[in-house]
Amino acid sequence: MKKAVGFAITVVILLVTPGCVGQPIEKRTTAVEWQDAKAAAQAVELGIAGLIPADEVVSVDQHETGSLFSCDEKRHRWTGITYVTLAPGAEIEAVVKQMEEGLGTLFVEEDDFMISNYRDMFDEYTVTAESPITGESYLFGQDDSVTISIDSWSQCFTLPEGTYPGGSF
């Protein structure tokens, strides 16, 4: 239940914050296929998970499929999730803050990412990394007492003609 509520709030936050919509076309990146956008987002999810010291990680569960959200009338972005289960005794908030500090190493070549944090409705420390140019976004924080969730939204892309945007991707 907590995951569903948190995911719904996350979706609302990302839909009302800067993303693909409203950006001039000339500021958007070059065209990308959905498979490449998904692969790039999943790679960053794993990169974010990799910011956690190995001795504090029990398992990493990256979901193979996700779904699509609209960027605007013609474009979409892929969204997915990875769960990281921590070792007993790990202090989740301290781990999340350590991950936040390491984000600069992941986005070193991409200076358009805005990093921010806030306390969610459960008073848990949550971090976002968002690109107002591409619409690419990442959000991570405590999911339950031993798990960190890493949500991703790929850069915006145009689906091939005739591709239905519903279902799993």
Walk me through what this model shows.
The chain is of the alpha+beta class. 27% of the residues lie in helices and 30% in strands. The chain contains three helices and eight strands. Strands 1, 2, 3, 4, 5, 6, 7 and 8 form an eight-stranded antiparallel beta sheet that branches. Strand 6 and strand 7 (147-153) form a beta hairpin. The longest helix has 16 residues, at 34-49. It is globular, with a radius of gyration of 16 Å.
What's the SSE blueprint?
Blueprint: H1 2-16, H2 34-49, E1 57-62, E2 67-70, E3 75-86, H3 92-106, E4 114-119, E5 125-130, E6 137-144, E7 147-153, E8 157-158
Antiparallel strand pairs: 1-3, 2-3, 3-7, 3-8, 4-5, 5-6, 6-7
Helix pairs in contact: 2-3
State the main characteristics.
169 residues, alpha+beta, 8-stranded antiparallel β-sheet, 3 helices, 30% strand
Short description:
The chain is of the alpha+beta class. The protein has helices spanning 2-16, 34-49, 92-106; strands at residues 57-62, 67-70, 75-86, 114-119, 125-130, 137-144, 147-153, 157-158. Helix 2 crosses helix 3.
Summing up helix and strand content along with how strands pair, one would put the structural category as: alpha+beta
The coarse overall form would be: globular
**What is the strand content?**
25-35%
* Mean pLDDT over the residues: 85
Compute the separation of the termini in Å: 24 Å
Helical region count?
3
Helical residues, percent = 25-40%
> For the CA atoms, what is the radius of gyration?
16 Å
Oligomer: single chain
Quick one: how many beta strands? 8
The major sheet is characterized as: 8 strands, antiparallel
Low-confidence stretches: 4-28
Order of helices and strands: HHEEEHEEEEE
